[in-house]
Amino acid sequence: MTSAYLYAAARTPFGRFGGALAGIRPDDLAAIAISGVLGKVPALDPARIDDIVFGNANGAGEENRNVARMSALLAGLPVSVPGTTINRLCGSSLDAAMMASRAIETGDAAVVLAGGVESMTRAPWVLPKPDRAHPASDATAVSTTLGWHLVNERMPAEWTVSLGECNEQLADRFDITRQTQDVFAARSHQLAHTAWDTGRYDDLVVAVPGTNLTRDEGIRTDSTIDTLAALKPSFRPGGTITAGNASPLSDGAAALIIGSEAAQPLLGTAPIARIAGRGVHALTPQDFGFAPVHAANTALQRSGIDWDDVGAVELNEAFAVQTIACIQAWELDPHLVNAWGGALAIGHPLGASGGRILGTLAHRLIAEGQQWGVAAICIGVGQALAVVLENVAPETAWADAP
């Protein structure tokens, strides 16, 4: 089989729930990300794109079930370019990239546009259909923004607790204190702010027309350990998890160009990273935050390397506690992880976050002169995904890096 390569990455700024992107439909956000990443490969005739694979965790609203196809049409791509939308909740766009890489490796495609989108602000309420005609009782609309809804009564109660309660249990299991979580969260905001100020995201983020959002909206430059310590627990009385050390509800989109080595003349540019390994893992639903440990270990094993070779890690910060638990399990230097900030500050639009961390990882490897990196993400209901990238950017002499 041939190898699959990442050629380009782009994303929108991530907006707060009800914030600057609240007026933008998810299919329009996705179209903006698609246009943005195609702008990085201007030599590519869009008609040569073999497929579009986009992740989305909702799909019940303005996404019209298949946002990949809808957004491709809105972006002005030829009608001959197909598109499919996949859903693995928080991991949807990383899953999309993994599926795209498999299509490249097997020869089913030469160029695939992958990515994902989520507008958590615009996620609809759903109204279940009645069991019989003309019921006299009231009906309750259910928000589809996040978490379990319309739960099957046969599901064990311990599986269907809130995501926050799942992570309170993780804090208990690994004795991770509130202060430790708040310190990590403050770090995320500080690193994200510094990364923007030093231009790290200039080549990754594309503007959203009609808005004045120029940076990720959730970054709080005034976040400190003291300000975070003043916040009340969100899920348990006396608990450790707050709105400050959990990722916020967010809106945004991300897109990636993945292709074979032979596709380089079509794209008019050299690849920046090789997709060297993939991993997927599942645990009991309430343990979802710890699942990246096993997914990343699998991806590394399939890449033929180990943690000693890894120079950069992008781990989606769904909650500070689960990120800390994974770092500790891997016995990693925390400075390798999310050096440009993470989801606690940047935001976590479910369907887009995997694409964000993969694109950021590729750019970090180049900027930091590292050869190997890992992108990993936890997923509600007990799952996780991970991808290993190898830096192949021609301008990076990683072998000579200190």
What do you see in this structure?
With 402 residues, the chain is α+β, with helices and mostly antiparallel strands. It has a domain at 4-120 and 247-390: Thiolase/Chalcone synthase (Peroxisomal Thiolase, Chain A, domain 1), CATH 3.40.47.10. The chain has eleven helices and twelve strands. Helix 2 links the parallel strand 3 (51-55) and strand 4 (83-86). It starts with a strand and ends in an 11-residue tail after the last strand.
Provide a brief overview of the structure.
The protein is α+β, with helices and mostly antiparallel strands and 402 residues long. The chain is 30% helix and 19% strand. Strand 11 (372-379) and strand 12 (383-391) form a beta hairpin.
List the helices and strands and how they pair.
Blueprint (H helix, E strand, L loop, with lengths): L3 E8 L3 E2 L9 H13 L12 E5 L11 H8 L8 E4 L5 H14 L5 E9 L5 E2 L15 E2 L19 H12 L3 H20 L27 H5 L20 E11 L3 H4 L5 E10 L8 H13 L6 E6 L4 H11 L12 H4 L6 H16 L3 E8 L3 E9 L11
Parallel strand pairs: 3-4, 3-5, 10-11
Antiparallel strand pairs: 1-8, 1-9, 2-8, 5-8, 6-7, 9-12, 11-12
Helix pairs in contact: 1-2, 3-11
- Any idea what the radius of gyration is? 20 Å
Write down how many β-strands occur, each being a DSSP E stretch of 2 or more residues: 12
The shape is: globular
Order of helices and strands: EEHEHEHEEEHHHEHEHEHHHEE
The second-level CATH architecture of the domain at 4-120 and 247-390 is 3-Layer(aba) Sandwich
The largest sheet is: 10 strands, mixed
**Low-confidence region ranges:** none
Average pLDDT works out at: 95
Percent range for helical residues? 25-40%
N-end to C-end Cα span? 33 Å
Residues in β-strands, percent: 15-25%
What is the CATH superfamily of the domain at 4-120 and 247-390?
Answer: Thiolase/Chalcone synthase
The class by helix and strand makeup works out as: alpha+beta
The CATH topology of the domain at 4-120 and 247-390 turns out to be: Peroxisomal Thiolase, Chain A, domain 1
DSSP helix count? 11
The CATH class of the domain at 4-120 and 247-390 is identified as Alpha Beta
